[in-house]
Specification:
single chain; about 500 residues; alpha+beta; five-stranded mixed beta sheet; globular
Length: about 500
């Protein structure tokens, strides 16, 4: 990972934001090559989504009416309990700290949790029944984290509403949290039990509209792009005259005030999402859920990802709106991480917006003459995370003629530069021919002119930024109007007529 981050800065893919002032944690700037690659990635996604009959595109505002986020559940649910270490001042999400608990403290943990649970049961007999059922299968439970213990409680408690309240109380009850944190070491400084009381932390950035900063003027930077699609569902459907099933796609910035950013572009406070919400008739959601799972995995494979670096992760614990959820995970240098989520969201979003806004969000089916709130299948890709995944997947080092070659094996669609034009020497008119070639090709592709240094050294520079083809103007060009084309991955060379270079690139890109 260190090599990739170093290359990203050195070659102009990604820079630390505000670096001359010490940087701003969790924020990154895309350099000359990075912005080209990111645009190529977004364009590849946009074409795959909107170059078909059943998906329309929009670009919704970042700032939206605050009631949108009440309806979506973000105001009430988009919070995390947070604590600070009193010694080193490091800040953590409470549930992440619970995961640091050592296995030897699990018996102490159980005593604390049982004591807490007993206060949550109004019926003493009910608690004893629950406790007996838990102990009966205790030996079969692999409890390596507090989450594992809580999952077992949830399975045993039949009342889903009570189980949800129990879960919420478990994380935010001050006495409960304080007792458990006395058993936990700070991951940063190693001190035990030196944490502040837990307090709720909303992940949305808050700002104000207008000159007066009061509660009546509060708005939020959107934490996701999906809600802009949902509130425009009927606008798009009416304007485009689409019939179910159909989708709405959007690419845009989102903002989350993450407590801890980490792993380069993987978790940041400002990022870009590529989302598509596919609206279907209730009862048909399972069929389209499987369809979009297949389509989205195929998209990554078609752009050069290897199957062994991708896997499906099924969500066992579902979000409050979800019927089913799968993630596509990529094998990053630090481990598996999500790059796309495919979710069956039922009618939660449109139904809630109908309730909170008072405006009907129902679709009228002309064939059956019925009105209903559509169900939704969501595909949500992190553009920044996908960028990072393709960067990691393409990075390679290999020995060539006694020296190490660093190469980025980008799919030609994603490569920031499609070709390099290289005059062998700057004499006999070779440089003039190369300049003319460059200007002609720049009408159609991003290409790079380079006449500095030995030809082998120039090839290596292009390999390091992932340029798939290099065209060299040499002495034979002066005789027969052909150039040498060198392919990045195989390093094989062949002669191509200058008049066919544009056609050559179009065929391969």
């Amino acid at each position: 990972m260190d090599k990739i981050v170093s290359l990203a800065k050195r070659r102009g893919f990604v820079f630390q934001s505000s670096e001359i002032y010490g940087g701003l944690n969790g924020c990154w700037d895309y350099g000359p090559l990075g912005v080209e690659m990111l645009n190529n990635l977004k364009q590849a996604w946009w074409r795959s989504m909107t170059f078909r009959d059943d998906i329309e595109g929009i670009d919704a505002s970042i700032l939206m009416h605050p009631r949108v986020w009440e309806a979506s559940g973000h105001v009430a649910n988009f919070t995390d309990p947070m604590v600070d270490c009193k010694q080193c001042k490091a800040r953590y999400r409470l549930d992440h700290l619970y995961e640091q608990l050592s296995p030897k403290n699990l018996s102490k943990l159980e005593e604390i949790v049982f004591s807490f649970l007993q206060t949550r049961f109004s019926d003493p007999v009910g608690f004893e029944t629950f406790l007996a059922a838990y102990r009966k299968q205790r030996d079969d439970i692999q409890l390596m984290t507090v989450e594992g213990l809580l999952d077992e409680y949830r399975k045993l408690i039949k009342d889903a509403k009570f189980a949800k309240e129990l879960l919420a109380g478990y994380f935010i009850d001050p006495n409960m949290a304080d007792s458990i944190l006395k058993l936990v070491n700070c991951p940063n400084c190693g001190n035990v039990g030196t944490f502040t009381e837990a307090r709720q932390f909303n992940l949305m950035f808050k700002t104000f509209v207008g000159p007066v900063e009061d509660t009546n003027n509060v708005v939020y930077l959107r934490p996701e792009t999906a809600q802009g699609i949902f509130v425009n569902f009927l606008n798009v459907q009416s304007a485009s005259r689409q019939k179910l099933p159909f989708g709405i796609a959007q690419i845009g910035k989102a903002f989350r005030n993450e407590i801890n950013t980490k792993n380069f572009l993987f978790r940041t406070r400002e990022f870009e999402q590529m989302e598509m919400q596919y609206f279907v008739k209730p009862g048909e959601e399972d069929k389209f859920f499987e369809y979009w799972r297949e389509e989205r995995m195929k998209w990554f494979l078609d752009l050069g990802m290897k199957q062994e670096n991708l896997q499906w992760h099924k969500h066992e614990k579902l979000a409050h709106y979800a019927k089913a959820a799968f993630d596509i995970e990529f094998k990053f240098p630090f481990g598996w991480g999500e790059i796309e989520g495919i979710h069956s969201r039922t009618d939660f979003d449109l139904g809630n917006h109908e309730k909170f806004s008072g405006k009907a969000m129902k679709y009228y089916d002309e064939q059956t003459k019925e009105k209903f709130v559509p169900y939704v299948i969501e595909t949500s890709v992190g553009a920044s995370r996908s960028f990072m995944a393709f960067l990691c997947a393409s990075y390679d080092e290999e020995m060539v003629e006694g020296e190490m070659r660093t190469v980025l094996h980008f799919h030609p669609k994603l490569a920031p530069m499609k070709a390099a034009i290289l005059p062998l020497v700057n004499r006999d008119g070779m440089d003039d021919i190369a300049h003319t070639m460059t200007k002609d090709l720049q009408k159609h592709f991003r290409v790079f002119y380079d006449d500095s240094g030995a030809i082998g050294r120039r090839y290596r520079r292009q390999d390091e930024i992932g340029t798939p083809y290099c065209f060299t103007v040499d002495s034979q060009t002066l005789q027969d109007q052909t150039v040498t084309v060198r392919e990045r991955d195989s390093m094989k060379q062949e002669r191509v007529a200058m008049s066919k270079v544009k056609e050559y690139l179009f065929e391969r890109i």
